[in-house]
C-alpha cells in the first residue's frame, strides 16, 4: 500500500503562539520551563492534527524554537567559540544567543549572532553555521531523540527530520582561514552515526535526511557526488533498523539523479511540483530493490488547492511502474512555507476561500490522494468530483480575467520597454530641470515609523478615526519630514512613507487581483513572520495609489520630491502568486499598473521617481541555466514600468543587498538613471562589480548601514565616498544611506543624516579644489 507522508509542518501555531511565547521569554515574562511547555503543546497539537487528517508518516524534529539549521548546529556541537560553550548540552540561553547575539556596550562589547541568510529561494531565513578548519563536532543536543520519544508517549510514531550531512556543511560557512567545508565531513559523520544509533535505540525506524543540495548546481568546489557516497555509506553502516529517506526539493536532481538512486538508502523524495519532468527521468532508471519514492505532488510553496485528478494521474503512472508499495504520497517540500489553516479565515469571500489550501488542507489532499491510489478512484469519487468542480470553477471564474488589462498588454510594442534616448542624453535634460549639485544627497524613502504613526494607521483601520482626521494627521507627518529634510540640507527629498504599513501590502491593497488573509502568517526568521498577499487574478490599477501624497509633499517645498513605488518584481516575489499562468505574465500586469502610476506622478509634476526592487535578485532561479530567462522577463517588466516617461523625468531604483557581480549586466540593462544600493558594510567592495563592468548610469552606494543602531561619523562617510570616487566617475555618484529609515529612531536618523550631508559637502569642496 502507498502511504501518506509529510516532510515538515509549520511551527508557529494557528494564532502565532510560538512568537508570543518566545518573545515573552526574551522579555523575562515567561520562565524557561513555561516556554518549553508551550513548545511541547504546539508539537502535540500539530502531530495530532496530522494524525487526524490521515497522514501515516508524521515528521518530528521539524519543530524549532528559532530555526532548524540552528538546531542542527547545536545537535552536532558546531557552536562558535565566542558563545563560551564548553561542551555538554546546549542551554536555551546559548541557543538564543547564537540566534540573536548577546548585547554589550562599547566597541568589542556584546557577542554577534550567527549570520542570517535566505533558505534557498524561499522567504525563510536560516542561521548560517560557522566552521573553522580545526572544527570538532560532538553530539551536543539530543533534540531529535527527545521529540521522537515525546511523540511516542502520545502513541504517535514519527519520522525524525534531520538536515543531511552534506547539505549541512554546504549551508555553513568557513570562518578564520578559507577552506573547503567538505574537508570536515569525516569529522562530522561519526556524530551523525552516534545520533542514528541513539535514534534506533529509542525505537526510530525511519528518518528523513534533507539534502536539498542534491537539487542544485555543483558548487565552485566541484561536484558533490563523492561526498554523498562517502556520507551515506557511513550512515548506512550505523543506521541498523532505520530506513533513511533522502529528501530533495525546490528543483530537479538532473545530473545528480543517478548518484541519488545509488546511495545506500531506502528511498528518495522528489519535488514533482517544481520539477515534474523528474518522473520521466526516474522511469528510465532501474530502481534498487525495495527502494521507495516519496512523490511531492501537492505544492508546498503555494496556497492553491491542488488539482487532485492531475496529481492522481502522476501517482497512478508511478504505481503502474513500480507498484503502490513503493510510493509515499507527499507535499513537494516542508509545509513551513505556507500558512496553517484556511478555515481560520473569516473575512475572505467564500469563492476565493474555496480556491485555497493551507498546510492542513494540503495534508488532507495528500491523505485523499493516498486513499484514491490504494482503494481506487471510486472509493473517493465524491471528493474527487468536488475537487474537479472547484478547480474548474476557479478556472472559469470571471474574477480571474480583466480583458482591458490583457488587451493593453497585447498591444504594447517593444518601444514600451525602452526609454527613447540613452542615459547620457536624458541626464542633461534632468540636470537642466533639477539643477542638483555634484554628489547629490537623498534617502531611500521611509522615515522612522514611530509608535505614533503605527497607532494612527491602526486606529484608521479599525474605524476609530475617520478618513478626514487620518489624512490630516498623515499630511502633518509629511510636512514634518519635509521640513526636517530641508533643515538638514538634503537635495532630493522624500515624503517618508508614513501611510504605508508595508511596501507590498500597501500597493496590493490599492490594486485589483490581490487578496489579504487574517491569519496567513509564515515564518520569515525566528519570531518574525510575514503575511504575504495573494495574487489571485489579473492585476489592475483602478486609480492612482500614491499621487496625492507625493503631490502634497511636493507642494510644500521648492526642492524635488521623489515619488516612491514598489517595483513589479518585488510585488510578485513577496506575494503568493496565482499558479494558473506563468509568473512572468502576472509580473507584466504588475508592471503595467506601476507604469500607469509612474506616468500619473510625472503628470502631477514629480520629476524624480524611485521604483524599489529589493527582491530583484532573490527571484533568480536556483539553477543557473534558468537565470537568463528570468533576468530577461524581470528586467523587461522593470523597464515596462519605468519607460513611459519623458527624458527629463529621472528614474531611480533601489536594491538592498550587495551581491551584484553575477547580475551586473542585467542591472545595467534596467537602465535606471540612478541606482541606490547597500554598500557600507562591505566598505564599498561591491563597487568592483560596477567598475569591472563600467556601469554607465548614476549610482548611490550606501554610506550608512541603517541595519545597525550605530551612527557613523562624517569622517567615516567621507572615507567611504573617497573610495567610491577612486573607482567611479565623480559625476556618477549620489550620496545616500543603505536603505530606508523606517526601523530607525529619530535620535539616530537626525545626526546620521547631518553627517551624510556634511560628507557630501566635503566631497564637493575637494572636487572644486582639484579643479581650481
Ligand atoms: N522605499 C523603501 C523604504 O525606504 C525601500 C525598502 C526596501 O528597500 N526594502 O523603506
Ligand atoms: Zn533597501
Round the Cα radius of gyration to an integer and report it: 27 Å
Range of helix content: 40-55%
Write down the CATH topology of the domain at 427-771.
TIM Barrel
* Largest sheet composition: 8 strands, parallel
The CATH architecture of the domain at 427-771 is: Alpha-Beta Barrel
- The quaternary structure here is single chain
Low-confidence stretches: none
In the CATH hierarchy, what is the class of the domain at 427-771?
A: Alpha Beta
Mean pLDDT: 96
Cα(first) to Cα(last) distance is 86 Å
The secondary-structure class comes to: alpha/beta
Say which molecules are bound, naming each kind only once.
glutamine, zinc ion
Q: How would you sum up the global shape?
A: globular
Strand order of the largest sheet: 1-12-11-10-9-8-6-2
* Approximate strand percentage: 5-15%
In a nutshell, what does this entry contain?
The protein is of the alpha/beta class. It contains 27 helices and 22 strands.
Secondary structure topology:
Blueprint: E1 3-4, H1 17-26, H2 32-53, E2 58-60, H3 68-75, H4 92-100, E3 116-118, E4 125-127, E5 130-131, H5 143-153, E6 158-163, H6 165-171, E7 173-174, H7 185-201, E8 206-210, H8 225-239, E9 243-247, H9 257-262, E10 267-271, H10 278-283, E11 292-298, H11 308-322, E12 327-331, H12 350-353, H13 359-375, H14 381-396, H15 403-411, H16 423-434, H17 451-461, H18 467-488, H19 505-510, E13 512-515, E14 522-525, E15 528-530, E16 534-540, H20 547-555, E17 562-566, H21 568-573, E18 576-577, H22 583-603, E19 608-612, H23 627-642, E20 650-655, H24 664-669, E21 674-677, H25 687-692, E22 698-701, H26 714-727, H27 746-771
Parallel strand pairs: 1-12, 2-6, 5-7, 6-8, 8-9, 9-10, 10-11, 11-12, 16-18, 17-19, 19-20, 20-21, 21-22
Antiparallel strand pairs: 3-4, 13-16, 14-15
Helix pairs in contact: 1-2, 7-8, 11-13, 17-18, 22-23, 26-27
This protein binds glutamine (GLN) and zinc ion.
The site of glutamine has 12 residues, from loops.
Amino acid at each position: 500500500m502507498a502511504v501518506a507522508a509529510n516532510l515538515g509542518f509549520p511551527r508557529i501555531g494557528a494564532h502565532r503562539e510560538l512568537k508570543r511565547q518566545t518573545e515573552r521569554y526574551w522579555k523575562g515574562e515567561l520562565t524557561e520551563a513555561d516556554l518549553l511547555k508551550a513548545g511541547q503543546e504546539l508539537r502535540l497539537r500539530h502531530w495530532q492534527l496530522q494524525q487526524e487528517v490521515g497522514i501515516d508518516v508524521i515528521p518530528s524534529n521539524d519543530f524549532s524554537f528559532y530555526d532548524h539549521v540552528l538546531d542542527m548546529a547545536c545537535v552536532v556541537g558546531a557552536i562558535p567559540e565566542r558563545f563560551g560553550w564548553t561542551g555538554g548540552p546546549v542551554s536555551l540561553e546559548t541557543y538564543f544567543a547564537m540566534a540573536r547575539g548577546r548585547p554589550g556596550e562599547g566597541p568589542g562589547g556584546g557577542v554577534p549572532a550567527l549570520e542570517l541568510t535566505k533558505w534557498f529561494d524561499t522567504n525563510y531565513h536560516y542561521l548560517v553555521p560557522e566552521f573553522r578548519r580545526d572544527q570538532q563536532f560532538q553530539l551536543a543536543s539530543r533534540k531529535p531523540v527527545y521529540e521522537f520519544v515525546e511523540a511516542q508517549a502520545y502513541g504517535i510514531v514519527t519520522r525524525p527530520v534531520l538536515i543531511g550531512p552534506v547539505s549541512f556543511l554546504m549551508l555553513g560557512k568557513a570562518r578564520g582561514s578559507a577552506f573547503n567545508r567538505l574537508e570536515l565531513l569525516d569529522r562530522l559523520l561519526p556524530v551523525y552515526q552516534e545520533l542514528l544509533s541513539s535514534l534506533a535505540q529509542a525505537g526510530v525506524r525511519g528518518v528523513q535526511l534533507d539534502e536539498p543540495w542534491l537539487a542544485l548546481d555543483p558548487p565552485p568546489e566541484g561536484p558533490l557526488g563523492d561526498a554523498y557516497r562517502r556520507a551515506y555509506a557511513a550512515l548506512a553502516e550505523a543506521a541498523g533498523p532505520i530506513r533513511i529517506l533522502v529528501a530533495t526539493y525546490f528543483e530537479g536532481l538532473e545530473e545528480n539523479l543517478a548518484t541519488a538512486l545509488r546511495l545506500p538508502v531506502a528511498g528518495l523524495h522528489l519535488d514533482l511540483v517544481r520539477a515534474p519532468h523528474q518522473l520521466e527521468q526516474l522511469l528510465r532508471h532501474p530502481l534498487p530493490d525495495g527502494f521507495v519514492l516519496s512523490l511531492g505532488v501537492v505544492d508546498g510553496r503555494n496556497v492553491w488547492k491542488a488539482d487532485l485528478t492531475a496529481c492522481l494521474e502522476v501517482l497512478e503512472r508511478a504505481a503502474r511502474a513500480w507498484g503502490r508499495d513503493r510510493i509515499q504520497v507527499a507535499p513537494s517540500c516542508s509545509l513551513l512555507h505556507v500558512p496553517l489553516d484556511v478555515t481560520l479565515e473569516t473575512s475572505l469571500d467564500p469563492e476565493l476561500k474555496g480556491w485555497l489550501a493551507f498546510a492542513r488542507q494540503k495534508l488532507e489532499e495528500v491523505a485523499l490522494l493516498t486513499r484514491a491510489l490504494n482503494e481506487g478512484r471510486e472509493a473517493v469519487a465524491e471528493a474527487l468530483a468536488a475537487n474537479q468542480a472547484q478547480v474548474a470553477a476557479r478556472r472559469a471564474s470571471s474574477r480571474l480575467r480583466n480583458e482591458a488589462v490583457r488587451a493593453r498588454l497585447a498591444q504594447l510594442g517593444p518601444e514600451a520597454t525602452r526609454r527613447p534616448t540613452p542615459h547620457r542624453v536624458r541626464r542633461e535634460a534632468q540636470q537642466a530641470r533639477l539643477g542638483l549639485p555634484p554628489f547629490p544627497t537623498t534617502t531611500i524613502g521611509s522615515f522612522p515609523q514611530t509608535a505614533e504613526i503605527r497607532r494612527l494607521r491602526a486606529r484608521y483601520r479599525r474605524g476609530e478615526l475617520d478618513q478626514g482626521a487620518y489624512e490630516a494627521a498623515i499630511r502633518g507627518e509629511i510636512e514634518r519630514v519635509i521640513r526636517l529634510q530641508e533643515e538638514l540640507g538634503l537635495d532630493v527629498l522624500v515624503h517618508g512613507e508614513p501611510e504605508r504599513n508595508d511596501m507590498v501590502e500597501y500597493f496590493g491593497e490599492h490594486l485589483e487581483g490581490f487578496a489579504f488573509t487574517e491569519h496567513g502568517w509564515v515564518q520569515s526568521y525566528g519570531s518574525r513572520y510575514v503575511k504575504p498577499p495573494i495574487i489571485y487574478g489579473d492585476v489592475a490599477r483602478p486609480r492612482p495609489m500614491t499621487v496625492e501624497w507625493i503631490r502634497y509633499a511636493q507642494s510644500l517645498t521648492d526642492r524635488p520630491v521623489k515619488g516612491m513605488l514598489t517595483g513589479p518584481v518585488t510585488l510578485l516575489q513577496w506575494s503568493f502568486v496565482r499558479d494558473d499562468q506563468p509568473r512572468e505574465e502576472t509580473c507584466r500586469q504588475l508592471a503595467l499598473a506601476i507604469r500607469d502610476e509612474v506616468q500619473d506622478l510625472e503628470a502631477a509634476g514629480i520629476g524624480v521617481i524611485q521604483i524599489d526592487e529589493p527582491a530583484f535578485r532573490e527571484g533568480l532561479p536556483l539553477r543557473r541555466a534558468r537565470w537568463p530567462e528570468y533576468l530577461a522577463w524581470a528586467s523587461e517588466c522593470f523597464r515596462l514600468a519605468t519607460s513611459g516617461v519623458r527624458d527629463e523625468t529621472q528614474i531611480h531604483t533601489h536594491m538592498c543587498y550587495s551581491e551584484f557581480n553575477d547580475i551586473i549586466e542585467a542591472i545595467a540593462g534596467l537602465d535606471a538613471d540612478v541606482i541606490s544600493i547597500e554598500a557600507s558594510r562591505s566598505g564599498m567592495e561591491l563597487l568592483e562589480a560596477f567598475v569591472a563592468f563600467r556601469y554607465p548610469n548614476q549610482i548611490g552606494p550606501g554610506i550608512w548601514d541603517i541595519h545597525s543602531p550605530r551612527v557613523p561619523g562624517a569622517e567615516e562617510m567621507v572615507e567611504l565616498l573617497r573610495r567610491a570616487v577612486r573607482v567611479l566617475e565623480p559625476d556618477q555618484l549620489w550620496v545616500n544611506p543603505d536603505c530606508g529609515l523606517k526601523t530607525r529612531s529619530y535620535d539616530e536618523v537626525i545626526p546620521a543624516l547631518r553627517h551624510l550631508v556634511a560628507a557630501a559637502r566635503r566631497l564637493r569642496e575637494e572636487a572644486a579644489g582639484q579643479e581650481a
